[in-house]
Amino acid sequence: MALMITDECINCDVCEPECPNGAISPGEEIYVIDPVLCTECVGHFDAPQCVEVCPVDCIPLDPDNKETQDELMAKFKRITGAA
């Protein structure tokens, strides 16, 4: 399941550089996560790095983008070209 950033975001800028897939970018009002690129850091880290650094806890799972661990790993491999 991809992650999402809620409107509780304070635009502190700490999440964007932590994303290994480049899935986080500034939106019109708050940062946004591209579900096509978000793997919840599967393949890179044991936990989503954006969630780890977020000071306001505004990055939950996105209920509109449900994925299994296997699907997230397949996405990681597709994005990174890993075998």
Write up this protein.
The radius of gyration is 12 Å and the shape is globular. Helix content is 20%, strand content 7%. The mean pLDDT is 96. The chain has one domain: Alpha-Beta Plaits, CATH 3.30.70.20. The protein starts with 23 loop residues before the first strand and ends with a helix. Strand 1 and strand 2 form a beta hairpin. The protein has a two-stranded antiparallel sheet with strand order 1-2. It is built from 2 helices and 2 strands. With 83 residues, it is of the alpha+beta class.
User: What is the class in the CATH system?
Assistant: Alpha Beta
Side by side, the strands of the main sheet go 1-2
Cα radius of gyration in angstroms: 12 Å
Q: Tell me the overall shape.
A: globular
**Could you tell me the strand content as a percent range?**
5-15%
Query: Cα distance, first to last residue?
Result: 22 Å
**Model regions low in confidence, pLDDT < 50 over at least 5 residues:** none
The biggest sheet amounts to: 2 strands, antiparallel
CATH architecture: 2-Layer Sandwich
Quantity of strands, as a count: 2
| Total DSSP helices | 2
Mean pLDDT: 96
Order of helices and strands: EEHH
- CATH third-tier fold name: Alpha-Beta Plaits
Number of domain units:
1
In short:
By secondary structure, the protein is of the alpha+beta class. Helices cover 20% and strands 7% of the residues. The chain has one domain (16-80): Alpha-Beta Plaits (2-Layer Sandwich), CATH 3.30.70.20.
